[in-house]
Design a protein that fits this description.
Blueprint lengths: L31 H5 L7 H26 L8 E4 L28 H4 L3 E4 L17 H8 L14 H5 L8 E7 L4 E6 L2 E6 L23 H6 L2 H8 L7 H9 L4 H4 L19 E4 L15 H15 L49 H37 L3
Antiparallel strand pairs: 1-2, 3-4, 4-5, 5-6
Protein name: SFRICE_020501
GO molecular function: metal ion binding; sulfuric ester hydrolase activity
Keywords: Calcium, Glycoprotein, Metal-binding
């Protein structure tokens, strides 16, 4: 940033590797000073992880400070996003909680795939936007924000107007996953979300209730916020003071806030676990915690969404199980994660048999498919007859015209 020519547009993408997954109980190498500032956290492995998050926070502050030094901040859009929810279980768990959302990283549950994001510009009003947004939407959205255009068909949708004008999201659905290795799939259309296949029950619960018992009272995160580099730059450069009361009020507007306050009532008993014989259906507008299965009460939604998932599944390229490559070891690349294959190196893999769809065909689905095709055929036939009739009338009129 400091060496950038301010007359030239700047796109800067920073992907922090730490923290990524957790280190279980002992594997994180957190600097001592970052551990010390988190001594209010009673759980020691979580304290190590929090220290790395503090380092990330400071890194963001350094970026904001550098933009302000070069007088670029007023004309910069800053986006901070997460790739997935917390790894609450497993050997590399970070002891994070996705409450009130269900599940853990590496699953199709909301706790894994629904994350927070922040987009900031000096001219944007502060608000919470509840629209549906997919990671592929960032490219067309930011291109539009910069006044650019893109050609061709892409997966992403331009949501700049929706974000800046507080409009409804133009995105109507999201293909969450078609995982042929783990044999499950998930799809969202509108507020409804469908999960099918074999999802591990051990990764399908609510996690974090037990950690609330070890939380130390009295720590004020507001002090950390106000003393950060970003807050300092906002005060000194943009003359913006962070209003903590307004921030707390806006937090109350969050769709999930009321669910967060009700986590004491969360239970892992009686939850729907998808199998090859039956999946799970949820209305996320009223049940973001995915606790009330609608599979049997909304059969037409199920049949419609399963049919759409079948179409997506038919388009996948079967994957091989990933295998470690010793050439990827960061110790061989100055301890930096880098591409380790030459672009010209030919890596061949044998073709795999196409994986089975992770849901058994039901009588209801077959009937829906028959009805769907019949309706489509009737519409096509009606359109054809109408077009033919119009052409016939025009020809007769020409034949008898004087």
């Amino acid at each position: 940033i400091r060496s950038h020519d301010p007359s030239v547009p700047l796109y800067l993408h920073i992907s922090h590797a730490a923290p990524h997954i957790g280190g279980g109980f002992v594997n994180l190498q957190t600097p001592e000073d970052l551990i010390a500032v988190n001594d209010h956290i009673a759980h020691s492995p979580r304290r190590l992880y929090a220290g790395l998050v503090t380092g990330l926070d400071r890194s963001v502050g350094h970026v904001i400070s550098a933009l302000a030094e070069r007088e670029l901040l007023n004309n910069t859009i800053v986006v901070l996003i997460s790739d997935n929810g917390a790894a609450s279980t497993g050997l590399n768990r970070n002891f994070g909680s996705n409450l009130p959302l269900r599940g853990t990283k590496g699953t199709p549950w909301e706790g894994a795939v629904r994350t927070t994001a922040v987009i900031w510009h000096a001219a944007l009003a502060s608000k919470i936007w509840p629209g549906l947004f997919h990671v592929t939407d960032w490219m067309p959205t930011l291109i539009a924000a910069a006044g650019g255009e893109y050609n061709g068909t892409i997966d992403g949708i331009n949501q700049w107007n929706a974000l800046t004008k507080n409009d409804t999201s133009p995105r109507q659905d999201v293909l969450i996953t078609t995982d042929d290795l783990n044999e499950y799939a998930a799809f969202r259309e509108g507020n409804y979300k469908l999960i099918i296949g074999k999802v591990e029950p051990q990764q399908s619960d609510y996690y974090g209730m037990e950690l609330k018992k070890s939380r130390l009272p009295g720590f004020l995160y507001e002090n950390v916020l106000l003393s950060s580099d970003t807050a300092r730059v906002f005060r000194e450069t943009l003359f913006i003071n962070i209003d903590l009361e307004m921030a707390a009020t806006k937090r109350n507007y969050s769709d999930l806030y009321r669910h967060i306050n009700n986590t004491d009532a969360v239970t892992n008993e009686g939850l729907c676990i998808p199998t090859n014989a039956k999946g799970c259906l949820y209305d996320l507008s009223v049940d973001p915690a995915e606790s009330k299965d609608l599979w049997h009460t909304h059969p037409q939604f199920v049949q419609h969404m399963v049919l759409r998932l079948r179409a997506y599944w038919a388009a996948i390229n079967p994957r091989h199980e990933p295998t470690p490559d010793p050439r990827a070891n960061p110790a061989l690349h100055d301890f930096i994660w880098l591409p380790w294959l030459d672009n010209l190196e030919n890596v061949t893999k044998p073709l795999l048999a196409f994986p089975n769809f992770p849901l058994q065909v039901s009588v209801g689905e077959l009937q829906y498919l028959v009805d769907f095709n019949l309706n489509a055929f009737k519409e096509s036939l009606t359109s054809y007859v109408k077009t033919s009739a119009d052409a016939f009338i025009q020809n007769i009129a020409k034949l008898f015209s004087f």
